[in-house]
Specification:
The protein is of the alpha+beta class. Helix content is 23%, strand content 34%. It has three domains: 262 residues, Spore Coat Polysaccharide Biosynthesis Protein SpsA, Chain A (Alpha-Beta Complex), CATH 3.90.550.10; 80 residues, no CATH class; 105 residues, Jelly Rolls.
């Protein structure tokens, strides 16, 4: 089968760690990022593909490179349009490459699965059922009467089984219920959380789009195989979920219920619950916490920091270099409201971090003043910045660790830790990392203007040169 990861999202529910400029799937909350862990989990099923938006290209390039995925297996939506257009674009992409008869599985990029063996068994059964013409969902065995998830109701009839799991016909999709209804769902034994995982034969899903969403499909089908006209056509497509567009209209759909220890990690309350249940999931917080008359609290810090709590109960504290969140346990679903309010007020911290990711690595702003700007820059092994110049600033580079190679006006200069080079205003320059370890250097800018748009590129490995 072809396992495909849908990698999107606005990055608001786990603010301030996750933000629109660096959403949840790229964050290293546990042992690696969500996206990295999802790729590892799916590799045993087939050649992994990733479908994401063009705005996440730099982040995705680095992630898939680290995991050894082929660059051509990444599909870029021109913009986010919800799951139905995304799946339609995926099907069109695969069909134009002669893969219309293959089975595809679509999986979110930012979920946690504790029992991967059970997950793999469920996907294999779903693959078998999909080969019979069904669109198959994976249903999560509910552990509580949750009101934050949609549910899939199944019929008692089994249409296939394997390794102790059964596939059932779907009776219907149920919206997020109130608590009383959720309790009846839990007691019924026939309602399962909808985890947004779908398995289907590509040509079958295309036929469903042609039948139930003909206007959407006509625009997707008109996209050239090389995606050259995707920007125009995709802008004309309505934003709609796959559940509404296709799944709720289908007769030939099935569900494989399973208990794979799943979580969508959709709030800080869920993060706190997971950390309390598993010692392994506590490892990424760098907070050293001291308590006085305080209990049942959760503290997460991105940087090494000592945090003291006095007379505090049932509280969550999340600390990043430029933002601090304090929220009472049970109220973290309101974080989105907080982020919306900050965005309306024009607060850049609502969506942006003080660091940015580039295809070659990343940089972090250490200081930003009207007279100077300082950055910590990390260049991945074998990568290089574009060959560029600046009209309104000069730069001074000091290597902290790793091996650097500077090209300054066509002259190559090798730098090791502790050595530096001065880049005069208007000079053509680049830094490359010829070594096997990350290169870290500090850049101090002086001049009249320090914006990222004061760049003229003469050569670039990532097609960012504008003629």
């Amino acid at each position: 089968m072809i396992p495909v990861i849908l990698s999107g999202g606005s990055g608001t529910r786990l603010w301030p760690v996750s933000r629109a400029s660096y959403p949840k799937q790229f964050c290293d909350f546990f042992d690696g990022s969500f996206l990295g862990n999802t790729i590892d989990r799916l590799k045993v099923l087939g050649e992994v593909h990733v479908l994401t938006t063009k705005g996440m290209e730099a982040l995705t390039r680095r992630a898939v490179s680290r995991e050894g995925l082929k660059a051509e297996n990444v599909i870029y939506e021109p913009m986010g349009k919800n799951t139905a257009p995304a799946v339609a674009l995926l099907c069109h992409f695969l069909d134009t490459r002669g893969k219309g008869d293959e089975i595809a599985g679509v999986f979110p990029s930012d979920h946690l699965i504790g029992n991967e063996e059970e997950f793999h068994k469920a996907v294999r059964l779903a693959e078998s059922i999909a080969s019979q013409g069904y669109v198959v969902t994976l249903g999560v065995q509910p552990s509580s009467p949750a009101t934050g998830y949609g549910y899939i109701e199944v019929t008692p009839e089994s249409i296939g089984s394997s390794d102790g799991l059964k596939a059932h016909r779907v009776a219907g999709f149920r919206e997020k219920p109130n608590l009383a209804t959720a309790k009846t769902y839990l007691d019924s034994g026939r309602h399962f959380w909808n985890a947004g995982m779908f398995v289907f034969r590509v040509c079958d899903m295309i036929a469903h789009f042609q039948k139930f969403q003909p206007q959407l499909w006509s625009k997707i089908a008109a996209i050239n195989a090389d995606m050259s006209n995707a920007q125009y056509n995709y802008a004309l497509v309505d934003s709609i979920s796959l559940d509404y567009a296709i799944m709720e209209k289908l007769d030939t759909q099935a569900c494989v219920p399973c208990d794979m220890e799943w979580s969508d990690v959709g709030s800080w309350d869920e993060m706190a619950r997971l950390s309390e249940e598993s010692e392994k999931l506590q490892s990424t917080s760098r907070a050293e916490v001291f308590n006085v008359n305080s209990e049942n609290n959760y503290v997460y810090s991105v940087n090494n920091k000592v945090i003291g709590l006095i007379d505090v109960t049932d509280t969550m504290v999340v600390d990043t270099p430029d933002a601090l969140l304090v929220v009472r346990k049970g109220s973290s679903q309101k974080v989105k409201e907080l982020v919306d309010a900050m965005r309306e007020a024009g607060q850049s911290e609502a969506t942006e971090h003080p660091f940015e990711t580039r295809p070659w690595g990343r940089f972090e702003i250490l200081a930003d003043d009207k007279h100077y700007k300082a950055k910590k820059i990390t260049v991945d092994p074998g990568a290089q910045l574009s060959y560029q110049s600046h009209a309104q600033r000069s730069e001074h580079w000091v290597v902290i660790s790793g091996q650097g190679e500077v090209v300054l006006n066509e002259k190559t200069i090798a730098l090791k830790p502790g050595e530096s080079v001065y880049i005069p205003e208007g000079s053509k320059h680049r830094m490359r990392n010829p070594g096997a370890q990350p290169l870290i250097f500090v850049e101090v800018q002086t001049g009249k203007y320090f914006g990222e748009d004061d760049i003229v590129r003469y050569q670039d490995d990532y097609s960012r040169v504008q003629n």
